[in-house]
Amino acid sequence: MIELAPSILSADFARLGVQAQAAVEGGATVLHVDVMDGHFVPNITIGPTVVASLRKVSKVPLDCHLMIERPDEFIPAFAEAGAAWISVHQEACVHLDRTLHLIAAHGCKPGVVINPATPVRALDEVLPLVHHVLVMSVNPGFGGQTFIHSSLKKIELLANIRESRRLGFRIEVDGGIHRDTVADVVRAGAEILVSGSAIFEQGNPSENARQLLKSALDAAKHAVQGLSSAVAGEAAGDRGNSLSLP
Question: What is the pTM of this model?
Answer without folding.
Answer: 0.90
